[in-house]
Amino acid sequence: MPLSEGTIRSARIPHGKNQLKISDGGGLYLLIKPSGRYWKLAYRFGGKQKSLALGVYPDVGLDAARERREAAKRLLASNIDPGYVRQQERYAQRMMSVVAATAVVAPPPPEEPIAASVGDEAVAAVENTPINAVPASLESSEQQRLEDRRLRILQQLIRANGYMTNEYLLQQGLDTTGHKISFDRLRTDLAWLSEQQVIRLETSDVWVATLTRHGLEVVEGRLWVPAIRRPEPAA
Fold first, then answer.
1. d(CA 103, CA 97)
2. Could you give the C-alpha distances from 171 to 151, 176, 177, 220, 231, in angstroms and in order?
3. Could you tell me which residue ranges the Integrase DNA-binding domain spans (predicted)?
4. Three-state DSSP class for 30?
5. pLDDT higher at 6 or 128
6. Secondary structure class of 169 (helix, strand, coil)
7. How many Å apart are CA 139 and CA 69, to the nearest integer?
8. Residue 70: which residues within 8 A CB-CB, separation 6 or more?
9. Residue 208: how many CA atoms within 13 Å on its side-chain side?
10. For 98-115, what is the mean pLDDT?
11. Is 37 helix (H, G, I), strand (E, B) or coil?
C-alpha cells in the first residue's frame, strides 16, 4: 500500500527492534532508525540485488522520493546502474572541490613600457596581432584530434552490447585512448554525431547513444562523413 505523510509521521520502531522499514511500492521504502529516516530504493542490476540512497526525510519529502525513484527506473530501463551514476556524480563533485581548493590565481604582470630598443614596426606588429590568433599547425592538430575522437566514440558503440552505451562508459573508453575530455565536451560531440545521423541519442538524466546503420558503415569504412576520421583499412 502506498505511503502517506500521515503514515510516515506516525510510524515508530517496534519495541525490541532497532529499525523499521515501510514500503511505498516499486522498490521505494523508508528505513526508520533511531538516527533518522532514510529513503532507499531496492533494485536489481546485473543479476545482483542492490539499494540506492534517495535522501533523508523530511528534507526529501514523499513526492520528491517518488520522483527520484522514477528517475532511477528510467536509468534502469536504459540498462544503466543508478548506483554507478551516483558514484560518478560524487566523484565529479569531489574533483570540483579539490580543483576549487587548490586553484591559485596568478597576479597580473606589472605593466612595463616597451623597451626603447624595440622598433616601431615590431611594436605595431605585436599590437595588431589578434589575441585569439591560433597557428595553422595547432588548428590542424586540434581538428585531427576531434575527428579521431568522433571515430573512437563510434568504435566504442560497435563493441557495446546492442550497439548502445551511456556517456559515463564512453568517457571512460575515451580516457583509455588518450582523449580526456569533460562531459560538456563529450555531449557536444554526441549531439554533433546525432545531427549526422550516425548515432541515435537519448538525452534524459544520463545520455545514451546507439549506433545507427550509417554509423556502422562509417566504422566499417563503407561510408565517409566529413569531420570524422576514416578508419584504418583492415590488414
1. 10
2. 13, 9, 10, 22, 20
3. 3-89
4. strand
5. 6
6. helix
7. 46
8. none
9. 19
10. 52
11. strand
Q: Hey, what's the cell of 190?
A: 554526441
Q: Which CATH number fits domain 140-219: 3.30.530.20, 1.10.10.10, 1.20.910.10, 2.60.120.920?
A: 1.10.10.10
Residue spans per domain, the chain: 5-76, 140-219
How far is 193 from 219, CA to CA, in rounded Å? 13
Cell numbers at 134, concatenated: 591560433
The C-alpha cell of 106 is what? 596568478
* pTM, full prediction: 0.48
Task: Domain 5-76: give its CATH code.
Answer: 3.30.160.390
**Which parts of 26-169 are beta strand (E)?**
28-33, 36-45, 48-57, 164-166
Q: What is the mean pLDDT of residues 19-39?
A: 95
Cell of 69: 525513484
Taking a C-beta distance cutoff of 8 angstroms, is the pair 44, 34 a contact?
A: no
> Residue range 32-48: average pLDDT?
93
- C-alpha cell of 218? 562509417
Sheet hosting strand 199-203, strand order edge to edge: 164-166, 207-211, 199-203
